[in-house]
């Protein structure tokens, strides 16, 4: 694999880890700062930027760092990652400018969902991001995904003041020892997110807990979380344990089919008299026009290499205002390469070097 230089227009040679985030976030070897001057677009790469899935909700990913090592992580995030050697951090002003452009294209009543392949609340300028996004014409609502570990009382107060409307909280067990195992960190304390839930609710911020059900591991915990959600009057959206090419896999755990997954949700719905299947819940996602694709799967294009890729053996190329994650690329920064597009869903582009 081509050795990527550690300095360049895409990477600040002056950046120190303590300048971008506190020490609870071990950083990957390459810290790629995405600025307007970097000429790296904010559409096309799953690890950062803006994702448009054709609805009234836009996913906004300001960075890719994470402080947990979840045993089931679908992206292999966190300090123990085996596949990621790059942490991306998007400049706040650049991000706001680009979000405003996409919102203008999508129309009124847009929800901005601040999420990440890591932990969104670890972004150094997270409060400014929320408060500035709120001012964009057409933005009606702001939600945020989080593992809850950074939701101290002071930070919760700042999230509320910034204008956050809803929190989607990854909570997989109400018991410390089980939660520590699932989050992969002995420092995890379930009391932190539980206290944050009460604080948010007292100020009118909506809460949705999003546990991952891992059959044979946290079955009883899921039922306890259902009862907890019902008692609190909050939504619970149970996630299915999935295994992907680069995800972490739990020993002895087998994926359920979707049929079995939804059958069990139906059983719990009847038992606890609570909606658990997404289509039965309040749905704020409305169809909206999609951003156009400059190329599609199967096309052969030329791209300029701008940065190392998020996954090892990938480089990040740019073509026609989109990022392309290129596998098997031996080119260096600034070189032009021929690429065959292999995936194009939702303007997220992957390709192989030719």
Description:
With 354 residues, the chain is α/β, with parallel strands linked by helices. The chain contains eight helices and 16 strands. Helix 3 (126-133) links the parallel strand 5 and strand 6. The longest helix is centred in the N-terminal third of the chain and has 15 residues, at 92-106. The chain is globular and about 55 Å long. Mean pLDDT is 92; it is low at 1-23.
What distinguishing features does this structure have?
7-stranded mixed beta sheet; alpha/beta; disordered N terminus; 354 residues; 2 domains; globular; OB fold (Dihydrolipoamide Acetyltransferase, E2P); TIM Barrel
Secondary-structure topology with pairs:
Layout: H1 17-20, E1 30-34, E2 49-52, E3 57-61, E4 86-90, H2 92-106, E5 110-114, H3 126-133, E6 139-146, H4 153-162, E7 166-169, H5 176-183, H6 191-202, E8 206-209, E9 212-213, H7 219-232, E10 235-236, E11 239-240, H8 258-272, E12 300-308, E13 314-319, E14 322-327, E15 336-343, E16 350-353
Parallel strand pairs: 1-4, 3-5, 5-6, 6-7, 7-8, 8-10, 9-11, 14-16
Antiparallel strand pairs: 2-3, 12-13, 12-15, 13-14, 15-16
Helix pairs in contact: 2-3, 3-4, 4-6
